[in-house]
Design goal:
The chain has two helices and no strands. The chain is an all-alpha fold.
Length: 52
């Protein structure tokens, strides 16, 4: 979704692939992106799991 690889990995599990995409597209998360712009570097990847 965004970023350049810079370090540690963290995994957040969602009930489904679509739920993760919906969270990313939400107004709340989009507002958070503005707050962290130029303040942090990280990768954000949404991947399908075994159940999707």
């Amino acid at each position: 979704m965004e970023g350049q690889s810079h370090g540690r990995s963290f995994i957040v599990e969602f009930p489904s692939y679509q739920a993760a995409k919906d969270c990313y597209a939400s107004a709340e998360y989009q507002a958070a992106i503005e707050l962290r712009t130029d303040a942090a570097r990280f990768d954000l990847v949404i991947a399908k799991g075994l159940g999707d």
